[in-house]
Amino acid sequence: VYRYAYAVENRWRRKKGGGKQARQKVKHYLGKVHSFPPAQEIAFFSFMGIEEAKKEEYLRAATAKRLVKALVEWELAAHKAEGFSVDFSSGAVLKDGKPASIAMNEGMLNTFTLRRLLVFKAGNGDEETGYGLAKAFVEAGIRVPEDVFVSVFGKAVGTAPDTMLP
Questions:
Q1: Is 141 left (phi over 0), alpha (psi -120 to 50) or beta?
Q2: Number of helical H runs and strand E runs in the chain
Q3: Which phi and psi (to 5°) does residue 104 adopt?
Q4: Which residues, other chains included, contact 35 with Cβ-Cβ below 8 Å and sequence gap of 6+?
């Protein structure tokens, strides 16, 4: 049995006699779902080849997009998800040239969730922005070490020298 992922839009309509009924409309095909349980536990900074003493320097110097790219590569390596191409300039996740979704952790990495991370914009307040950013990472199936999340968050709200958008 194969699973496929779609982005859907929900519309609520009133039913005759009261109540509401959901109608779903398919917006995008996100690809065949490929599941990978965690194969190995690798620390993020060890995977990146960064020593403990140079963590803060790396986080300060890296752009938010570079950190997101590193986190995606780290998760793919930890799940031994091979044969996929991830284009970070367009945000596409492909397998054999076709759209693909990779089920990892509590979410799915696909073109839709990757693009949401790459073009993330700060909300009205820090709490809303933090919640939105955390939700985007979870929905994409990306675990984020706390210090890396704080760095990406700081860059998203503008308290760091870099912002998410180019």
A1: left
A2: 6, 6
A3: -140, 145
A4: 102, 103
What pTM was estimated for this model as a whole? 0.84
CB atoms within 10 A of CB 26: 9
Contact 124, 117 (CB under 8 A): no
Tokens representing residue 55 in the block: 């963590």
User: Distance between CA 165 and CA 85 in Å, rounded?
Assistant: 22
Q: Report the 10 Å Cβ neighbour count for 39.
A: 11
Structure tokens at 142: 């990306």
How many Cβ atoms sit within 10 Å of the Cβ of residue 96?
9
Q: pLDDT of 119-135, one tens digit each? A: 988 878 888 999 999 99
Name beta bridge partners: 63: none
Domains of the chain: which residue ranges? 4-157
Q: Residue 29 is which amino acid? A: Y
